[in-house]
Amino acid sequence: MKIKILIIEDEPTMRIGMSHFLSSSGYQVTTCEDGAEGLKQIDRGYFDLVITDLKLPKHDGLAILGHAKKFFPLIGVIIITAYAEVKTAVQAIKDGAFDYIAKPFSNEELLITVERFLKFRNLEAELNRLRESVSEKIGFENLIGVSPFMRDVFDRIGAIAKTDVPVLILGESGTGKELVANAIHNLSLRKEKACIKINCAAIPENLFESELFGHEKGAFTGATETRKGKFETADGGSIFFDEIGDMPLSLQAKLLRVIEDHAVTRLGGNEPIRINVRGIYATSKNLKDCIASGAFRGDLFYRINVVPIVIPPLRDRKEDIPYLIEHFLKYFGDKYAKPELKITPSAYEALMSYMYPGNVRELKHSIERAVLLSRDGLIDLKSFPDELSVNKTENAVSSSFHFDDIPLQASIMSLEKQRITKALKETSGKKTEAAKKLGISRKVLWKKLKGYQID
Ligand SMILES: Nc1ncnc2c1ncn2[C@@H]1O[C@H](COP(=O)(O)OP(=O)(O)OP(=O)(O)O)[C@@H](O)[C@H]1O
Ligand SMILES: [Mg+2]
Known about the structure:
The protein is α/β, with parallel strands linked by helices. The chain has four domains: 4-133, Rossmann fold (3-Layer(aba) Sandwich); 145-310, P-loop containing nucleotide triphosphate hydrolases (Rossmann fold, 3-Layer(aba) Sandwich); 313-386, Helicase, Ruva Protein, domain 3, CATH 1.10.8; 399-455, Orthogonal Bundle (Arc Repressor Mutant, subunit A). The chain is built from 19 helices and 18 strands. It has helices at residues 12-24, 35-42, 61-71, 86-94, 107-133, 148-160, 177-186, 205-213, 230-233, 249-261, 287-292, 298-304, 321-335, 345-353, 359-373, 386-398, 408-426, 431-438, 442-452, and strands at 4-8, 28-32, 49-53, 76-81, 99-102, 139-140, 143-144, 167-170, 195-199, 214-215, 227-228, 238-242, 263-264, 273-274, 278-283, 307-310, 342-343, 378-379. β3, α3 (61-71) and β4 (76-81) form a beta-alpha-beta unit. α2 (35-42) runs parallel beside α3 (61-71) and α17 packs across α18. It is elongated, with a radius of gyration of 29 Å. The two termini are 34 Å apart. The structure holds adenosine-5'-triphosphate and magnesium ion. Adenosine-5'-triphosphate binds at residues 143-145, 171, 173-179, 284, 360-361, 364.
């Protein structure tokens, strides 16, 4: 079906020029010369998009916009402005216009803006469809997520939280490992007791032992008091070893002993003290590689890897991004007293297509920064760090595939499917190898194969 566009422009050459050009580009175009006629046309409820001049006889562009948005919220409105009216144009965007184009503009500029609107509209429809299909909650504890991957994570947390089995949480930096650890503790029967966190990458090796196991008075120079270690403090609760892959080898042996004996001995002490703790471990390292290189003990790995929970990187679960955006926007909007912030479509597109090497943490920080930088209630592309917006254009330019005509989400999926198929061909169907090539886990690959119905 042809897209129907209404042009409201009093200046004849402009009006006829635009109409000709858009018709020849395949759109069905209707024109009118003033605001009053424009309103009448809009009331037919027939148009997908209205392109209106700001200055018009009988009702100006802002009145047209207000009317269209009030009665036909799905109609897109693009405002044409003169250079001096840019301030008003910004107001128009706040009031719901899709975008504005400043005179003088080329036919290409006009077409790009129209096409961007159509892409945006498709994306929005897709989002609404997704939202409706998500009848369940969009998160679990403090974790936001709707993707099948995150649903799996939630299921797993629910299944093991009330048991005492050790949990190993794996995921790149910023994927939410600590949130998962907290959720496990908070849903456990130990929730009234402490959840003690130990960052294995941050404690100097020589202090580690006394931190963990405590010490008796006089155990070493400077040990002027007897002190309980973290294990004792966590008694009855949980102990969370973050960055377990960075634990010094010498300590790994001692940790293993504690896990096996359920007891610790303070430095300088000789009585083992019984402890009852649940161990939760997290790392962004590949522990199997660490074992291979001799940096991690295989026997400790088998002890802690009873229930692994793998959190996939954000780029592998783009469905979660809209919900995370909404969540952080609300959170930081409240925090910095900037309610009802709006994101421009181009900024939204950039957020959706970025690869997020820093995962959810990076998205969260980007939005916090954008909220702080936002003016007039609007977050646009300029509010984000360069890599976010630049990356987007690079993606578009470097792709060999012609993505411009399909909705954004579909183009991401299509690119993904292409790459997976290619990797499988290159590895003669060997999934482990293909996953390696793609930099994803075998499990993630398996899910994607299922999702895309690739044989
Ligand atoms: N699913 C999610 N929903 C809401 N917030 C999230 C989610 N995942 C991560 N975050 C937020 O992102 C930030 C990073 O999360 P977290 O510290 O748990 O990551 P991590 O995997 O432990 O990272 P690192 O390996 O760098 O320690 C936190 O501010 C957290 O609140
Ligand atoms: Mg962490």
